[in-house]
Structure formats: C-alpha cells, structure tokens
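=== RUN LOG ===
request id: a7f3
mode: sequence -> structure
chains: 1
length: 629
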Amino acid sequence: MPTNLTCFRIFIASPGGLGEERRAFRDEIQDYNDSEAIHRGVLFQPFGWEDTLGGVGRPQSIINEDVRSSDFFVLLLWNRWGSAPDVKSSRFTSGTEEEYHVALECYEATDRPMRQLVMLFKAVDPQQLSDPGPQLESVLKFKQEMEEEKTHLFHTFDTIARFQQLLRAHLAAWLRGWENDSDIGGKSPPELDIVGDTGFVGDGDGDERPEAPEPVDTSLTAKAWALADEGRLTEAEVEFARAIVGRQQPEALMSYGQFLYRVGRLDQARVLFERAIEIAEDQSDQQFTLASAYGNLGLMLQIRGDLHGAEKMYRTSLEINETLGHREGMASAYVKLGNVLQIREDLEGAEQMYRKSLEVDEKLGRLEGGAEAYRNLGTVLLLRGNLDGAKQMYRKSLEINEQMGNLEGMAKAYGNLGLVLRARDNLDEAEQMHRKSLEINERLGHLEGMAKTYLNLGNVLQIRGDLEGAEQMYRKSLEVDQKLGRLEGMAMAYGNLGVVLQTRHDLEGAEQMHRKQLEIDEKLGRLEGMANSYGNLGNVLLLRGNLDEAEQMYRKSLEIFEKLGRLEGMAIAYLNIGFVMKSRGDLDGVEEMSRKSLATAERMGSPSLITKAKSLLNSLQKTPSDKQK
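=== RESULT ===
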C-alpha cells in the first residue's frame, strides 16, 4: 500500500428525506476505496453537512466553506427542494440550492479545486409526480434547467443499487483521470504481432425496442410523447404519470414503460410492463396489449441477461398473437425469438425466425418489419463471414428506412454497413457510417444504440492505432451499458479495454479486463464472447512467455469459433497459434497454422488478416536453414 495517498474530497448536498441514500453514498465510497482506489494511491473522502464542525458564524456559511474545499460535488434530489436559508437576505430558496451555486462558482473559478458537479435525481412515484406540490415543482423546474443547459452530468435512479452503481462509475472515471494525469472529470478537460479479438457490435443482435400497444385512447399520452421527442423529458414524465394515475388502462402503462426504457430506467419500465400484464389479463378486450406487454417484459429480461426468461415471455407473446390471428404481432415475436437464438449463437435457428418474420411482413406490406428482418438477416450473414451477402441485406434495410423516413432504422443500417466496411479494412468509410449512426442515436436519445456505436467507433480507432481515442469510446460505451444494466455490452467493452491495455503493455490490467468479460459471458452463456476472451487471455499469456497456457487458450477460442462457423475468429486463432509455434521454433506448425489462417481470411475477404497470414508465412522463407534442421 502506498505511504502517500492523493486525497479527493466529495461533498454531497441534499434536502431531507434521503438519509438512506446518504448512508449508501458513504458506504459505496468506502468500499471503492478499499477495493480499487487505495492500492492505486488515491483516497476519496465523503463530506456533507454531517461533517461540518460547529463554529462562530452562520451555519450555512460554514457548510459552504466545506463545499469550497471539495474536489467533487454530488447533488442529490428527490421530491423535496429543502428549507429556506437561515438568513432573510439570501437570494436562494433553500440551503441545498445555495450549496449548488457555491459549487458552481468554484467549478468556474481557476483558484478552486472543484473538478466536477454531478446531479442525481431519485425517481418520484407517479402518483406524486402527477400532482406535484411546491417542493417537487421546484425540483422539476431545476431538472428541466439541467436538460436545457446540458452543461453538467445528471442521472435519474430508481433504486439504491442503481444509485450506488452510478456513483461507482463516477469514482472510476475520477480515479482513471488521476492515473492518466489529466483534469479529472473534464474541467476544461519487443513486440509480438499477435491479433486481438474485438468482435463486431451489430445493430441486429437483440437491439429490439419495446412494442407499442394497440391504441385505445392516444390523447392521454400524445402530449407526453410530443414533449419526449422534443427532449423535454422531465415534462414528458409528468404527463405520462398523469396518464396512468387513477386509470386501469394497460396501454398507458405500456407507453410510460416505453418512455422509461428510452431513457435507460429499465427497473421501473419492467414494473410498468408487469402491471400492464396484470391488468390486461383480467380484461378480455386487451389481448393485443397483453401480447405486447409480454414481449416488452421479455426484452427487459433479455437486456439483463436472463435469456431463458426472455424466451418464455416471447413464446407467450407469440401464442397470444397466433390465437388472435394477429400477424404483425407474430412477426414481432419471431424477431425477438431470433434475437435470443442469435445471442446463443444458434445462427440457423435465428435465421429461421427472421425469415418467418420477413415472410409475414412482406404479405402484410409492412415496410418497417421488412427492413428489420433484412437487417437481422444481414447480421447472421456477417457473423458467418459472408460480407457481400451482409452488405446486400443492410442496403435493403437502409433503402426501406430511408423511404419511410425512419431515423432509428437508418441509424442501425448505417452502423451495420460500417461493420462490413471495417471487416474489409475500409476504415474511413466505416467511421463515416458509424458517425452517421451515432448522430441519429444521440438525436433520438437512444442509449443502447449510442453504446453500440461508441464501441464500434472505438474498434475503428484502435485498428488505426489511436489508443487514446479508442479507450475514450470504449469507456463511453461501458458507462452507458452500466447505466442500462446491459451485461452483453459491458462484457464487450471490458474485452476491448483489455485489448487497449494489452497494446500499452499493461498486462495485469489487460488480464483483469478480459477476465471480467469472460465472467459475464460465461454467465450469459455467450459463446462468441467467451471465445474472444480466451483468445485475448492467450495474448496476455504469450506476451508473458507462457507458451503452453497461451496455446491452451487459443485452442479453446478456436474450438468455439469452429463450432459457430465464425470465419474471422477462426482466422485470428489460427494466426495466434502460429505465433506460439514460431516462439517454440516449430516451423512446420507455423506453416500449417499460417496457411489455415490465410485460406480462412481469403474466404471471408479480409485484407488485413490476409496480410498478417502472408507475413507469418513469408517469415519462414527468411530462415530456410532453420527449417532444414
């Protein structure tokens, strides 16, 4: 343990009623110090009004001095704004507001240590949100200002666990900033040629949005959706709350749940979908909505990594739609089931489901469904290494979405075309496609799409050798997926961060990231992710000179990729086993592996892998005498 620690003070400001969160704030910081920060030379110190020593003068003024001496400021708000300050001359309406403005002044000053302000809002019960009193009105007004100004970070959380997760993510970012010797939080803020596995992040693999219910009275939620589409999320949520309070209408609950999904509050969205199911099951005229609710609940389970539960919900949705003869609902259920099968690496089963969906949508003349089916079929072909076929499917999807003016569909198609271009080493055009996708996703506030695009942009930057830019993108992706609780995305981000650390020769950090990825992928049963982790752990072991263990990892990776028919993964695994053989002086083994890698790379049409395989093969010709021995 270091004898000298760099200490950062974190001040928490909040009105009354948040005692449990304030205790969790201190507990989480202590846990993070013990597990991550102290052994890396940093100590985070929590501060609040509880720590302010008594003294001469106005109590709020003494608290303000503690704020001025802090490095970070966390503002925590729920349904109360707080009490008026202790002097009549104050221009502030509460002590918490005064503390916020003191922190803001310090952040903008050059002679104060304040590095970042973070605002965390606890979700308010719909009953109270639908009819807020003066205290809550003040909180909502402040939150609206945060939305409009977009100058400081703010999040909404539904549970204590989510609050701790958000806090921990910020602590990790602050620690990382210190280690990189940068302004934390953004105040003006012999080498082996082994191949890392970053993988593709497609927009057809489970990237489903919640279904809309059959509308009964759209006037209740139309105003809310209009506000949401304008980015006025706080006002929108108030209107959604008003739409459900005092009414037994499952379609309104579904709409509110869709909104919460959009903004990343999956726990509360799940509660609303479950409530919609409970009500709709008792209403014979709500069977269409019931089917959609089961589908949406399945999506929540899928995102959390419960594929078994998700499949059960999707099949229930399919059964209801089949009973109703609701072909559009059947097509949607086929897609969702295809997504689960694809995550499980059952590409044949996934393709079967996607083609069923396409058949139904073409009969119905349903353009949006057809575009989605083409996109998903393109992802199956991409995973099989059929780049031409994948491109053709993605182009069809893009054309239909452009015809409809469907921005979300266009974003997905751009992202997937970027994957094809990256596989062909056309990095400039690949980046262009991913940035088009990101622009649309950011405009729509589609968090999952943003996370996937950040990851794909990071892969492009990493291939170019821009490790700093790649890491930045991977960290952004990880932050969003942690917010969503999306395990699959978190696993891929950890793996890619491991590749960056490995390239920087931080083998300990790289191994830590790869093992985090492996742990999640084993939990999800995600074979492709496990194969990537084995390959990357093999790279770490090879760089350490552990040839036997490295080969063991590469062969585990190869076995999975061969089982899945993943050409890119197979080519990389052959190549890396070849490097092990080269380190041992087994030139016959090098030739066998390099030729296998070359044949596989040529089959999928990957110029970069073809070049690497030829380079390894040509290295044998430089030492013919060694081969004769």
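=== NOTES ===
The first strand starts at residue 6 and ends at 13.
The two ends are 51 Å apart (CA to CA).
=== END ===
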